[in-house]
Amino acid sequence: MRQKLKLHLILLLGLCVFINRTHAQLIGGDEDEEEEEEEEEEESVEDETFEEKLQRKNIKQDSSLSVDKLIAKYGYEAEVHHVTTEDGYILTMHRIRSQGSQPFLLQHGLVDSSAGFVVMGPNVSLAYLLADHNYDVWLGNARGNRYSRNHTSLDPDESKFWDFSWHEIGMYDLPAMIDYVLKVTGFKRLHYAGHSQGCTSFFVMCSMRPTYNEKVISMQALAPAVYAKETEDHPYIRAISLYFNSLVGSSIREMFNGEFRFLCRMTEETERLCIEAVFGIVGRNWNEFNRKMFPVILGHYPAGVAAKQVKHFIQIIKSGRFAPYSYSSNKNMLLYRDHQPPRYNLSLVTVPTFVYYSTNDLLCHPRDVESMCDDLGNVTGKYLVPVKEFNHMDFLWAIDVRKMLYQRMLQVLGKLPEDPQGEGRAVRVSRGARGRGLHAI
Ligand SMILES: *[C@@H]1O[C@H](CO)[C@@H](O)[C@H](O)[C@H]1NC(C)=O
Ligand SMILES: *[C@@H]1O[C@H](CO)[C@@H](O)[C@H](O)[C@H]1NC(C)=O
Ligand SMILES: *[C@@H]1O[C@H](CO)[C@@H](O)[C@H](O)[C@H]1NC(C)=O
Ligand SMILES: *[C@@H]1O[C@H](CO)[C@@H](O)[C@H](O)[C@H]1NC(C)=O
């Protein structure tokens, strides 16, 4: 079974590299999209109720709208901003605007984009929940993803553009976005929540540029992929590192900017295999997976990364050291004055940090998270999601993610009272309640 899954992943990877070369650009609003829409309009499903038809239409629409259009569609005030980093990358930020409210920056994980925080819609996704609780929500996009493929002097067609990892995202992208948000809003500090690599790069920033600790009120760390000693046994990671070993010296710079839509949606069976392939990486949990929404996921993922980001993760998994990118020992000597890069010093991360993690997260083992917590400078608490099957993507995608996870975050943020029973009540905020400074329900 494992073997079979591994094979599928390699096939998918191969396909994705292939599509990658065709430079398919997916951002909403391109011409072929409309053609496609017309074609598909004819397909209809028999015995469909009005609600089902509406839902199907919504799902189709949501899978091709860009993040700002998606936000606007659901009745929130959307904005698009561009931020230029010190090293010239031009990043897109999305905003669910709430003028004068406390800014809250959300930063996505690997192969994701700002879409990750809105993709499941206003009744599920975190960005809307925070907007409902009167935050001014800003969504970052790391260099290289589909919204941040621009530079003052480099072109994404040049390999030089792709010479970065999450180290640079932490060193340049996050500081630029934080400074930008504070400048536009006039606030001195913001809240930050990261998923996976959104945590990794945040800790890089705070340890390498400690003055940024002062600009962040709190860090809500969802599935922080930081220490990864336990991930080494992960069968897919082994497959991916084999894949990279077979590519030594190749010209691959960019990955996962392809489309799985066509392959995955060919038949029921290919769709199921695609979902299993995702589960193979992030942990298997059919219970919380909303299969109806899979087309929307396929429309927004994967959003594109530099191959170096993936290689860097593989390095920390293999070496067991949370450290900058390792080159040949000569180059390391030159760059770091040592044959290996020095570890990031997590004790310099003094932002009050609350950590959320889960037992079925194949990319982020609870033991690794706990040893990370021991090393971070200011952990104010941690929350192990009390659902055994909860996986790495359930932090964004789970059907009941609000009840299982975000409710706890609202308590940590002081927006909901702590529950003495520890048993979660469902969070319900009506749209009408927005903007009225909801502090408790
Ligand atoms: C959100 O949930 C409410 C109540 O359950 C429902 O009326 C509404 O249609 C839902 N909105 C969306 C966009 O699914
Ligand atoms: C890239 O940024 C430049 C500004 O430096 C702008 O003129 C150009 O339109 C941008 N290109 C894209 C594709 O957004
Ligand atoms: C990490 O930072 C702390 C606090 O400044 C310092 O005491 C410690 O020596 C540093 N550790 C390393 C390995 O540099
Ligand atoms: C940790 O955060 C608290 C705020 O929750 C702050 O008062 C304290 O100074 C921080 N500790 C360190 C070591 O920075």
TrEMBL record:
Residues 68-120 form the Partial AB-hydrolase lipase domain. Gene3D superfamilies: alpha/beta hydrolase. One of its GO terms (molecular function) is hydrolase activity, acting on ester bonds. InterPro entries: AB_hydrolase_fold, AB_hydrolase_lipase, Lipase_euk. Residues 431-441 have a biased composition (Basic residues). It comes from Drosophila persimilis. Pfam families: Abhydro_lipase (PF04083). Residues 29-50 have a biased composition (Acidic residues). This is GL26393. The active site is at S196, D361, H392. Belongs to the AB hydrolase superfamily. Lipase family. It comes from the Eukaryota. The gene is Dper\GL26393. Keywords: Glycoprotein, Hydrolase, Lipid degradation, Lipid metabolism, Signal.
